[in-house]
Amino acid sequence: TSEATLIDGAAVAAGLHSELRSAVENLVERGLTPGLAVVLVGNDPASSVYVRNKIRRSVEAGLRSFHHELPSTTSETDLLSLIDRLNSAHDVDGILVQLPLPSHIDAQKVTAAIDPAKDVDGFHPMNVGKLSLGGGALVPCTPLGCMLLIKGVRSQLAGLNAVIVGRSNIVGKPLAQLLLRENCTVTVAHSRTEDLPSLCRRADILVAAVGQPELIRGDWIKPGAIVIDVGINRAEHEGRQKLIGDVDFAGARAVAGALTPVPGGVGPMTIACLLRNTIDAACRRHG
Ligand code: GUN
């Protein structure tokens, strides 16, 4: 047996970025520069890094970027009134409120307050519903990025067994819908799943999105499977900060057919898909 093909998410994302840049140029020429508003409440260090990268990438792509950093003590009412203003702002096409929010703020309520047409995260109940019904939704960025990477390896997914480990609203659930749409047989596993290793061994497509460092071992993987690692876990390694995935990379590499690294796999795709959603939202609004 040979080593798994590495799925170079950074390279795929770079290709997307250059396509997106020309799409933005065309819109700018028509006087329709797409605008993305990014809202960060509090100072969670991981969220700050994500938000900084999102803003940097959107500026590089030629988008107009609106940045709102609010203190962790911000009231739900104040956040909702900011969202109201962004909903009515004509130069804002996309609104992203970075999660998690402080515990005194009801994230569901905030998500539902965003204009569904500007909901570039795809978290609004209207977009969640449309994704499940199969038409016209803004699709959550990380699942969308996973699908682009999977389809890059194999374009016909019909009949394949897909196992997603993790049932979050941000990744696991929407990804299940996308794989179902491709006619995969989809299983969503979680903390109460019995005999996770045996379930994973049946997967032609295995997606790990649980936030548990190296949970998925090499001997849980079906030979030749496509393995997508969504995990971003911070770990100390020989005194240095290191990112590790939910998959034991070395173990998986010896068995899988194709595998995403961490970092440089799904992460860069998430941001590229956010920009794509923002451009889509702008095109639809100015349609
Ligand atoms: N927190 C973790 N992932 C995401 C995401 O995709 N969007 C937002 N808004 N917050 C997140």
UniProtKB/TrEMBL annotation:
Pathway membership: One-carbon metabolism; tetrahydrofolate interconversion
Top-level taxon of origin: Bacteria
Keywords noted in UniProt: Amino-acid biosynthesis, Histidine biosynthesis, Hydrolase, Methionine biosynthesis, Multifunctional enzyme, NADP, One-carbon metabolism, Oxidoreductase, Purine biosynthesis
Pfam families assigned to the protein according to its UniProt record, in alphabetical order: THF_DHG_CYH (PF00763), THF_DHG_CYH_C (PF02882)
Any one GO biological process: L-histidine biosynthetic process
Enzyme Commission no: 1.5.1.5, 3.5.4.9
CDD domains registered for this protein in UniProt: NAD_bind_m-THF_DH_Cyclohyd
Tetrahydrofolate dehydrogenase/cyclohydrolase NAD(P)-binding domain residues: 140-285
Catalytic activity: (6R)-5,10-methylene-5,6,7,8-tetrahydrofolate + NADP(+) = (6R)-5,10-methenyltetrahydrofolate + NADPH; (6R)-5,10-methenyltetrahydrofolate + H2O = (6R)-10-formyltetrahydrofolate + H(+)
Binding site for NADP(+): G166, R167, S168, I232
InterPro entries the record matches: Aminoacid_DH-like_N_sf, NAD(P)-bd_dom_sf, THF_DH/CycHdrlase, THF_DH/CycHdrlase_cat_dom, THF_DH/CycHdrlase_CS, THF_DH/CycHdrlase_NAD-bd_dom
PROSITE patterns: THF_DHG_CYH_2
Statement: the UniProt record of this protein carries the keyword Ribonucleoprotein: no
GO cellular component: cytosol
Listed GO MF terms: methenyltetrahydrofolate cyclohydrolase activity; methylenetetrahydrofolate dehydrogenase (NADP+) activity
Domain Tetrahydrofolate dehydrogenase/cyclohydrolase catalytic: 7-121
NCBIfam families in UniProt: PRK10792.1 (NF008058), PRK14186.1 (NF010783), PRK14188.1 (NF010785)
Role played: Catalyzes the oxidation of 5,10-methylenetetrahydrofolate to 5,10-methenyltetrahydrofolate and then the hydrolysis of 5,10-methenyltetrahydrofolate to 10-formyltetrahydrofolate.
Similarity comment: Belongs to the tetrahydrofolate dehydrogenase/cyclohydrolase family.
PANTHER family the record matches: C-1-TETRAHYDROFOLATE SYNTHASE, CYTOPLASMIC, C-1-TETRAHYDROFOLATE SYNTHASE, CYTOPLASMIC-RELATED
Subunit structure: Homodimer.
Name of this chain's protein: Bifunctional protein FolD
Species for this entry: Bradyrhizobium valentinum
Gene that this sequence comes from: folD
